[in-house]
Specification:
Elements: E1 2-5, H1 10-20, E2 27-30, H2 47-62, E3 65-74, H3 96-106, E4 116-126, E5 131-143, E6 159-161, H4 173-179, H5 181-207
Parallel strand pairs: 1-2, 1-3
Antiparallel strand pairs: 3-4, 4-5, 5-6
Length: 208
């Protein structure tokens, strides 16, 4: 069965494709497969609200099951920033490097517990008719004082997960995916995905 990742972000899409690999019989698409479709603006005040906005709109207009996520970095000492503005922390057209630079500037002089941070991800699964499931995942750690590593994306070169001695940008992608906020959220979604896959297969069998 077909399922659409409601994103144009190639890094995020690659992670989702990796997470879906153990699940058989899913034809994983992304918004790159629907060039005429444009996601609505993220006007929510929370990761969940933004994920719901994307999931509902894409599922209804594309006519497929859709998984949408909204995620970002939260630094409690900065009042929760960058939060829902993680992708545009340094401005609407900011690059990942711009955002990381601003974060380091905002955290200049912070030490120890003040550098604590966590990634949060909310996943929404929707059909063309309604939202089916909402799950979330967090990954806690701290922000380094300089960038380390050339992998990952977003704030990964600055994020050091607790109990690890490498940033997300230094870790192998296979390791990062399992321990990340997105990986944790996806794990909670698997039973629902397996269920709709079974229902879909049974419906097709009846039709045949």
């Amino acid at each position: 069965m077909k399922i659409v990742i409601a994103s144009h972000n190639t890094h995020k899409i690659r992670e989702f494709r990796t997470l879906f690999k153990p699940l058989n019989k899913f034809d994983v698409l992304s918004l790159h497969d629907f060039p005429k479709y444009k996601l609505p603006s993220e006007t929510g005040d929370s990761f969940k609200e933004n994920a719901e906005i994307k999931a509902k709109d894409a599922a209804e207009k594309l006519g497929h099951y859709v998984i949408a996520d909204d995620s970002g970095l939260v630094v409690p000492k900065l009042g929760g920033a960058p939060g829902v503005f993680s992708a545009r922390y340094a401005g609407e057209d900011a690059t990942d490097r711009d955002n990381r630079k601003k974060l380091l500037e905002e955290m200049d002089g912070f030490s120890d517990i003040d550098r604590s941070a966590y990634y949060e991800c909310v996943l929404i699964l929707a059909s063309p008719e309604h939202i089916i499931k909402s799950v979330s995942g967090k990954c806690e750690g701290q922000i380094t004082e300089e960038e380390k590593g050339g992998g990952g994306f977003g704030y990964d070169p600055l994020f050091l997960k607790y109990d690890y001695d490498k940033t997300f940008a230094q870790l192998p992608e296979s390791t990062k995916i399992v321990i990340s906020h997105r990986g944790k959220a996806f794990e909670k979604m698997i039973p629902t995905l397996e269920h709709i896959k079974t229902v879909h297969a049974e419906a097709n069998a009846v039709c045949d």
